[in-house]
Design a protein that fits this description.
Elements: E1 4-7, H1 20-32, E2 37-40, H2 52-66, E3 71-74, H3 80-93, E4 97-100, H4 110-124, E5 128-132, H5 134-137, H6 143-151, E6 156-161, H7 166-176, E7 179-182, H8 188-193, E8 198-200, H9 204-219, H10 223-240, H11 245-254, H12 272-284
Parallel strand pairs: 1-2, 1-8, 2-3, 3-4, 4-5, 5-6, 6-7, 7-8
Helix pairs in contact: 1-2, 2-3, 3-4, 6-7, 9-10, 10-12
Length: 287
Amino acid sequence: MKKLIVPVVTPFREDETVDYAELKRIVRGLFDEGADGIFAGGSSAECFLLTDEERKKVLEATVEAADGGFVIAHVGAVGVRRTEEFARHAKRVGADAVASVPPFYFGFRYENIRAYYWALADAAELPTMIYYFPANTGASFDADQMAEILLGRENIRAVKFTDSDYYVMQRIKALTGREIISGKDECFLSALAAGADGAIGTTFNFMLGHYKKILALTEEGKWEEALKIQAQINDVIAAMKGADIFHATKYLMERRGYHTGIARRPFLPLTEEQKRRLSEACERNHI
């Protein structure tokens, strides 16, 4: 896996149809800004508000625009058969790796989820990432359970760890040696200190440069300077609170010249007050 992977948003027109041409422009722009790769079809892409056909076409457009750049395809679904279909499609169109949240809604037991990931890894025949997001999926594992899943298939290579229990994260790393990719933007520096190998974060879409600065500073041992940059990031994230995150993200990308449009319903548009708060936070923090 790479250091900083951007989970690209899905641009929509006013009628909520996908703007594939603009998606390609965004992907090319993110690589030009220094992204190490793209995470396609994830939460930031509003994946579960897309049809199956749209999810596939979004991935195809992303791979085409990446033009050889690193692309992880999110293939998560509630059932194994759909996930396997998405995984085989990802390999066919040229994705470099696949990732998936655990199956959700039905309150699956650990044994069900373990079987899900092993079936995904077998079907994908690509490096596979566990997308661990207990707050949203309701599925949480201890370090031993995560290690069992990771070590059960050679091509399950990494965890996107969207949580802030860095004791568990460190134990997973110690037990498996697999790569840990942080998913908590507001805790990026903390995750690096706890041993994360990189990150995937929604706010990379509009402030990738700040995260690159943090990474460079930590590699030079300048942790206090890195903390100042993290504080700037967190000031912007604080301004996003209370707004639907995808509308906030798209609004801030619009300020950078991208035509990302709206988020799909039932997400609600930003109020003028929310727009003001976001703009002021970006100006304060040179974003």
